[in-house]
Amino acid sequence: MAGDLRSKERAIVTLTSTGGSLTNGSAGAGNGTADFDARSTGNFPDDLQAQFELIAQWATVTGIAANVVVADLYLLPALDGTNFPDIDTTTGSSALPYSAYVGSFVATKAPTANTNARFVTPNVTFNPMLHRPYILNRSGQTISTNWTLKAVGVQGQYT
């Protein structure tokens, strides 16, 4: 008799809890604790998809309202397991490869100044390799220091 294919939730992994202050248009690595590693021995082994959560705050929230994209998420792959693509993290005009873009964090309501707000991406499908996560601030305001990026994977399970 044939079994069923099901999704199995995994434990949430904190990729960083110490993100640096990001002015609008600036990118910062979201790997203060760990890279997003979907290889067989990584922190997301055999996972098929993941969702990401950004926890951030702003000292000023002018212009951040419902349906505003506050940040974009990029997963830069290390195709050889070691080297990542070249990027430009110039303050205010960072450039990351569009091919590494995986989703946006969108405000569902205006955040309150100096208070943590939580944002999530849609499900993200990825290849089984090492990825370095980056956040690109698009909020129009400076994201305060110590933002957090977390991920939870979804594993395939045969029952």
Map the helices and strands.
Blueprint: E1 5-19, E2 27-29, E3 36-37, E4 47-56, E5 69-78, E6 101-106, E7 117-120, E8 124-125, E9 130-137, E10 147-158
Antiparallel strand pairs: 1-10, 2-9, 3-9, 4-7, 4-8, 4-10, 5-6, 5-9
Briefly, what CATH class?
Mainly Beta
**What's the number of domains?**
1
**What is the mean predicted local confidence, pLDDT?**
93
**What is the CATH topology?**
Jelly Rolls
Number of alpha- plus pi-helical segments? 0
Keywords:
mainly beta; five-stranded antiparallel β-sheet; 159 residues; Jelly Rolls
Kindly describe this structure.
- The model has no long low-confidence stretch (mean pLDDT 93).
- The N and C termini lie close together (11 Å).
- This protein has a single domain, classed as Jelly Rolls (Sandwich).
- The chain contains no helices and ten strands.
- Helix content is 0%, strand content 45%.
- Strands 1, 4, 7, 8 and 10 form a five-stranded antiparallel beta sheet that branches.
- The protein has 159 residues and is mainly β.
- It is globular and about 55 Å long.
